[in-house]
Amino acid sequence: MNHNTASEQPVVLVVDDDRNTRDGLARALQHAYKVITVDSGDRALAVLDGQPVDVMLSDVRMPGMDGLTLLNRAMARHPGLVAILLTAYGNVETAVEAMKRGAHDFLMKPVNLDHLELLLQRAIRSRAMESENQDLRRQLDDKFGMENIVGNSPAMQTVFDVIRQAAPTQATVLIQGESGTGKELVAHAIHRLSTRAKGPFIAVHCAALAPTLLESELFGHEKGAFTGAAFQRRGRFEMADGGTLFLDEVSEVDAAAQVKLLRVLEERTFERVGGSQPIEVDIRLVAATNRDLKARVAEGKFREDLFFRLDVVTVVLPPLRERLGDVPLLCTRFLEEFNRKNGKTIEGLTPDALNILAAYSWPGNVRELRNTVEKMVVLGRGNRLTARDVPQNIRESVRVSPAARNGDAPFNAAVGTSMAEVEKQMILAALRRHSDNRTEAAKELGISRRTLHRKLQEWRVAGETAQQDEAASTPQ
Questions:
Q1: Which pairing describes strands 313-316 and 105-108: parallel, antiparallel, or unpaired?
Q2: Per-residue model confidence as pLDDT tens digits over 386-407
Q3: How far apart are CA 91 and CA 370, in angstroms?
Q4: Roughly how many angstroms between the first and final C-alpha of the chain, as a whole number?
Q5: Closest Cα partner for 326 from 180, 150, 128, 67?
């Protein structure tokens, strides 16, 4: 932190009911700090709420609000504040209690000014470092909060944009997508990029629980609420207090639980099964479904009012068959993951293997691709995964596809080809299959027509430049 100018001086708030102490500390510190003095805890909180303060120096024994109460309230409102407590009645218990409540340090009166100066310098450095760390963590989260969700296709870029916009808010999010598209990964990303990132992330897979169990799982139960309830149990809503609750396959929640769920979303209170005591919770709800919830509402199987409560921000995850251009990227990510897990050093996939994987329809979506790459890594024997390593059912499915019957594989490239070249080969092969119809080729690849056009322009310009360079270097 640079303090060359007066405007950049750290701000120190001195809180003491003794005027001589306040004035003495102000005189001692004004050469390096902007000092504000007040005579009570109430006035201190007013200053803290009104402007940035770097360090608060507060007496412990004061009439009205004492120093420990002030510390509690100040830290609750301004977590980044550095607080140092001063006392003429110093004892170990008070010092320990102050540190437990978040005080940076504790000084005895009369204050040793050299010691105070040193303490302030350290405190300011510590605060600057913590601020930098928070900025760094925020940047890393902005960049890597979605590191497990891979994709360059326009549909996935839209998903990333919605996550970035929705995550910092408290809005309920509904994630829609087929099984295996990565709905839980999106829920995790929303949590990690939210203000609740330090709170719990609690997931409930609704389809895996019978209706009677689901209600107890969500809301908990009291001892004796039903046969086998030998003790009180907290539900997932209580566990998620201060964090994010993720309800996967929310479409499978039965009518009775839907009523309770709606009430929690409206009032933020509920009772445990068999209980009558209202319990308040502060949660952010993220729900996911692989069913069409609107259709479930029309069929009378899902409450319309609950649907509207859930459908505040919607994230639609495309199936993998609609973004086959992302297959090489996903394969690379999964290969790295399973190399690490299995102690392998497989360098990559050969183009013939990628040909097959990129031509398959992936009914199980990204999850199926991930499981496939894991199987290939575990059973693979060479330093690269080849067509022989692709599971037989996938090879056979691709072999009977129209493209394969016509002898036109999605693309063909030499071993060791870069991902950029693989992408180029895939696009050119798709254009051949669709007789240069860019709209149809883009649709098959899961990219926009604009992106396809831009790629072709880049390659054309790069090709012309290479030809010009070659001509310039040829002796005349």
A1: unpaired
A2: 889 999 999 888 875 444 434 3
A3: 60
A4: 62
A5: 150
Indicate the number of domains in the chain: 3
Supply 78's token pair: 């301004």
Greatest Cα pair distance in the chain: 97
The residue segments making up the domain with residue 19 are: 6-137
Q: Which residues contact 452 (CB under 8 A, 6 or more apart)?
A: 427, 438, 441, 442, 445
Alpha carbon distance 116, 296 (integer Å): 67
pTM of the model: 0.57
**Domain termination residue (choose one: 108, 137, 166):** 137
- 413, containing H or E segment: none
Beta strand 269-270 with 279-280: parallel, antiparallel or unpaired?
A: antiparallel
- The dihedral through the CA atoms of 156, 162, 165, 166 has a sign that is negative
Q: State how far the Cα of 81 lies from the Cα of 75, in Å rounded to an integer.
A: 7
* Residues near 214 by beta carbon (within 8 Å), at least 6 away in sequence: 204, 206, 253, 254, 257
Shared domain check, 298 and 234: yes
Distance CA 98, CA 391 (A): 63
Distance of alpha carbon 144 from alpha carbon 193, whole angstroms: 9
- Can you give the C-alpha Rg of the chain in angstroms? 31
Residues 315-339 have pLDDT tens digits of 999 999 988 888 888 898 888 888 8
310 and 176 co-located in one domain: yes
